Amino acid sequence: MTTPEYQSEHEAVAAYALGILDDAEATAFEVHLAGCDLCAAELDRLGGMEPLLATLKEFPGPAERPLRPAPPSMSERLIDEVAMRRARRRRRTTYLVAAAAALIIGGPAIAVVATSDGGDTHHSAQVEAHPTSPAEDAFFNHMTQKVAATDATTGVTATVGTEKKGWGTHTVLQLKNVKGPLKCSLIAIGKDGAQETVTTWAVPKWGYGIKDSPHKEAEYPLYVHGGTAMNRDQIDHFEVRTLDGKALVDVPA
């Protein structure tokens, strides 16, 4: 193997038997093992020592045992190897935990939320301090086309972002100024009149995208994503409607 953690490819057999190699190291050792009778025989021998190996996984590190003047035995080298690997992984885990804690304490610096002034594709941006969802991330970073519309009767505003895919069209809906409780769906209407449900969701009583709402969560738009087998050029428009058939807003494709 090319990994610097072992002076010889043959020395990795014990770590492999203990299951403490990472994926890349294990793969490299298995390539070596396929052509090495010595390591294959040693691995077979270690296969009958499962109780001992299980004990070695929890054995204290070399710093916790008195030094021995004699050359280390196989078992001692196994113990030292396990201790070294466990210590390295503990340090690595500590760094990751510290980094995660910093993110949790600091939180996301900003989350960009789109706003629309009506039924065109013009968007302005404002900064909001709230966590982003996968759908929201896709809306701002992956949707190559966005169209917005506001229904004059319901007052609901919807922006539909679309992204061309090999399987059809990936779609993200941004919905604002809608109150619940409601159960809704986004329907893709084809130019040939075909209809496909892109996604469904529920609106809580306090709603989404309600300006100056006393309920904090209601201030932010709803973002949901889904997909349709239709290609983008086959879609005439999208309809947001309740599951009982009430139309909330139509958005041109």
Automatic annotation (TrEMBL):
| Domain of life from the UniProt record | Bacteria
* Family annotation (Pfam families): zf-HC2
Q: What sequence ranges are listed for the domain Putative zinc-finger?
A: 11-39
Please state what the protein is called: Anti-sigma U factor RsuA
Tell me what organism the protein belongs to. Streptomyces crystallinus
Q: Which residues cross the membrane?
A: 94-114
Keyword GTP-binding assigned: no
- What's in the keyword line of the UniProt record? Membrane, Transcription, Transcription regulation, Transmembrane, Transmembrane helix
* UniProt xrefs under InterPro entries: Anti_sigma_zinc_sf, Znf_put
